């Protein structure tokens, strides 16, 4: 009777391969999560800056008398009345003078509010100091782009 040797992996080789795959997973999964948070933060930063620019542009086009009665959904294409995700958490019909709140990663991130000061229209951008990773990163970028000194701080733009 002739014995045949079959080629196969030993138990130690299989354990070693599982250990290597496990280590790769431990390293890769947090990086994938961080990449997703960074992508969300980039999207939120871009949308918040877009909102500020659209409000400013619309004020320049309309002038105060027409602008003061425009609801936010007539000024921007960002989703309005959101309770989660990204978009404007303020309800439809909200006027800029009442304050528009932009939400990132289901957390209020920045508030934009208009007010009249003599013949000028002031647009105040306030950081709301969110806590979730994506919203906090977006908030930090928005503060840098708008020269807001600290978390919870604000900047006033004079629109003419």
Describe what you observe in this structure:
- With 160 residues, the chain is of the alpha+beta class.
- The protein has one domain.
- Helix content is 44%, strand content 20%.
- It is built from 2 helices and 5 strands.
- The chain has helices spanning 11-67, 133-145, and strands at residues 87-88, 100-104, 107-117, 120-127, 154-159.
- Strands 1-2-3-4-5 form a 5-stranded antiparallel sheet.
- The radius of gyration is 25 Å and the shape is elongated.
- The protein starts with 10 loop residues before the first helix and ends with a strand.
Report the count of strand segments: 5
Could you tell me how far the N terminus lies from the C terminus, measured between alpha carbons in angstroms? 99 Å
Order of helices and strands: HEEEEHE
Q: Percent range for helical residues?
A: 40-55%
Spatial order of strands in the largest sheet: 1-2-3-4-5
What's the alpha carbon Rg, rounded to whole Å?
Answer: 25 Å
- Average per-residue pLDDT, rounded, comes to 88
The coarse overall form would be elongated
């Amino acid at each position: 009777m002739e014995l045949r040797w079959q080629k196969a992996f030993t138990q130690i080789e299989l354990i070693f391969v599982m250990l290597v795959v496990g280590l790769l997973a431990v390293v890769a999964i947090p990086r994938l999560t961080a990449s997703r948070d960074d992508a969300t933060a980039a999207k939120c930063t871009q949308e918040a800056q877009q909102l500020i620019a659209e409000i400013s542009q619309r004020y320049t086009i309309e002038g105060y008398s027409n602008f003061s009665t425009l609801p936010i959904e007539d000024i921007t294409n960002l989703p309005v009345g959101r309770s989660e995700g990204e978009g404007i958490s303020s309800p439809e019909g909200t006027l800029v003078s009442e304050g528009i709140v932009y939400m990132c990663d289901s957390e209020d991130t920045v508030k934009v509010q208009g007010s009249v000061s003599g013949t000028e229209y002031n647009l105040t951008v306030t950081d709301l100091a969110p806590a979730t990773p994506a919203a906090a990163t977006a908030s930090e970028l928005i503060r840098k782009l708008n020269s807001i000194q600290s978390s919870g701080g604000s900047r006033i733009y004079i629109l003419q």
